[in-house]
Amino acid sequence: MPQLATDLIEIENQRLATTTPSAIRKFDQEISDIPGIIKLTLGEPDLNTPEHVKQAAIHSIENNESHYGRQAGNLQLCKAISAYLKRKQELVYNPNSEIIVTVGATEAIATAIISLFNPGDEVIVPTPTFALYFSLLQLFGITAVTINTADDDYLLTPEALKRTLRRHPQAKGIILNYPNNPTGREYPPKLIKQLGSLLASQQLYVISDEIYSELLYKAQKHYSIARVIPKRTILINGLSKSHAMTGYRIGYLAGPQAIIKKMTTTHALLVTTVANTTQAAATEALSPAGDLDPQAAVKIYTERQQVLSDGLTKLGLKVIPPEGAFYLFVKIPEKYQTDDKYFAKLLATKARVGCIPGSAFGPGGEGHIRFSYAASLTDIEKALNRIAQFLNNGGTKHERL
Ligand SMILES: Cc1ncc(COP(=O)(O)O)c(C=O)c1O
To answer: Least CB-packed of 100, 191, 217, 378 within 10 Å?
Structure first.
């Protein structure tokens, strides 16, 4: 087993050396070995990929679709994405020049960040939010200017945005995520219109990660900011959450042609293109027949959300009312103050229930924990019993671990 030469360690990439790896994965791994633990940690649907989508992948293999495809994504899929965005959001994107199919939304986020910003730039990030944005910005030497939204019901307000823009007139971009991971909050259309009209006069790119757009619970319809400021928005979405296709690794970017062309260069340099087989599956998932799949998932998630939310509330925990995604963001009991890492560790070791410490999601996340309810109802009910026992017994004391 070769050991890296010590002189090479001295010349390692300093930015990578100081980049925080995924705090979510790290904590999940830390607690995974606890015997019998019920993990409500990862944002990974436990549902199977719909049958008609799987058949499309199988058909693609049998059809020998085994050659390099078009760099920005197979045209059939780009057409399906374009039609889907028109059908769902009244958005108009040319499949030939305004869409890139990426390796999950993760690559879409990375491609956008690398393509749009230079080291030393500032990018505004309302928090709590998906931690990957911070790590990628850090890796590429870009400064995240965070806006803590916790005191504003976990939503970015026009006032907070104005304040930040005044203090950071050089900021080159903003990264929005809604429905939000970890809070489950969704921005109402009125607020999106207000934020959009404010951003319309700013010289900055708006990256909008809308990967949970299909998972909404209160008969709300998602309203993309691309509808308000299409000339400034880079829209990110994907199939991982809507169609339980995390392992297929399909996401996409949509935006104005001039910037999509540049981002296609980055994308092609990084990955050439995405696997044909998963693109065939995604084409089927985004066809009108696939519209029913997220609806079926929402029914299942709604029941789980209610059981978990009601259960935690009965135990005296304050749950941030979610509108979308499949997470519950929960305040930890007051006596633990903001020490969410300690509380999450306690819950893992003493109650054998895994969750993610809220501080992993940036300012405003401290003092919270995130539960994912992309888990079976049986596991959720078992977890609730364990948390109840823990809170009724030892959990009321500040214990040593
Ligand atoms: C907000 C958000 N964006 C992007 C992703 C990554 O999605 P993908 O699996 O398609 O790369 C996740 C995954 O948890 C997420 O929560």
So the answer is: 378
